[in-house]
Design brief:
mainly beta, 14-stranded antiparallel beta sheet, 16 strands, disordered N terminus
Length: 291
């Protein structure tokens, strides 16, 4: 499994049985006092990406913001009186990686419905020395069951097809860095089974094949350790804060790639778009999450 090149956060689909979906709670995404204060959660990670057996150092930026969107076009809705607007948490992830003469630039965007605690849309876009590429998975929330559409548009492939309807809740591997924060940690330790598909962070069409995996967690004094073990023994490891908002501190991918939190802020993003604003934000102790 590869972390996003620039964001190599793998994209996979997890279809939960009823017992598995019960292990995740909507309370985290629905916490109005945290998400609806007009501020975004901004995190900067030191990244160590493994490519062809070589290690490359980079940085990953992740921004989470509460919004309301149009259910058909996914555009932001400013009118608070619109009854059809869908409340969501929007995830932006950005990174770039220099590999010799090539520069990989990649971006991942996820929209999570806070009303149903499900992923509404996942989009990966990027470019490298060969061209541009894009892949997406979109939820169709009409009808009695949720269905999904997969699209791939790269310099190698152009595909659009329907995915099987999930039998329970559906979660993608690319969203694991957020979803591990929504586990119901009512016990000191636990584990449950899921089905896991490969990442859509790729320069080629991905076959969405679901394979068994096990999610396990253990609470420590100040941290919670989460592991996602796949059927062939490969393991992704996450370290999150034990206390709300359960910040992701580290993610070690099965291929050895690693993200480690460097800075975490809560701020009104629109006020920090000018030269020098990054340095100003990082120096302001009032904007930082507690260590």
């Amino acid at each position: 499994m590869k972390l996003p090149t620039a964001l190599a956060l793998p994209g996979a689909i997890i279809f939960f049985a009823a017992t598995a979906s019960a292990q995740f709670t909507a309370a985290f995404l629905q916490n109005a006092s945290y998400w609806h204060d007009g501020k975004s959660e901004v995190k900067i990670y030191n990244a160590d990406f493994v490519r062809d057996g070589q290690h490359y150092q980079s940085e990953v930026l992740i921004i989470l913001t509460a919004e309301s969107v149009d259910p058909s076009g996914f555009t932001r809705v400013e009118d608070a009186k619109r009854t059809d607007a869908v409340p969501i948490i929007r995830w932006h992830e950005q990174s770039s990686l220099a590999r010799g003469l090539q520069l990989e630039q990649r971006s991942l965007e996820g929209l999570w419905r806070t009303d149903s605690n499900s992923l509404m849309r996942l989009i990966f876009t990027g470019s490298d020395g060969f061209g541009h590429l894009a892949q997406s998975i979109t939820e169709n929330h009409d009808g009695p069951a949720i269905t999904w559409k997969y699209s791939c548009d790269t310099f190698r492939d152009r595909v659009e097809k329907a995915l099987p309807s999930p039998t329970g809740s559906a979660i993608f591997y690319d969203e694991l860095p957020l979803r591990v924060r929504t586990i119901d940690f009512c016990k000191a330790a636990g584990s449950f089974e899921i089905a896991l598909a490969p990442t859509i962070v790729s320069s080629k069409e991905e076959a969405i094949a679901f394979k068994p995996a096990t999610v396990s967690y253990k609470l420590e004094d100040r941290a919670i350790r989460v592991e996602v073990k796949q059927d062939k023994g490969s393991v992704d490891r996450f370290v999150i804060d034990r206390d709300f908002p359960f910040l992701l501190r580290e993610w070690t991918s099965a291929d050895g790639s690693r993200l480690k939190l460097k800075n975490s802020l809560k701020l009104q993003l629109a006020g920090y778009g000018k030269p020098g604003d990054r340095e100003r934000a990082l120096k302001d102790p009032m904007l930082r999450h507690p260590d």
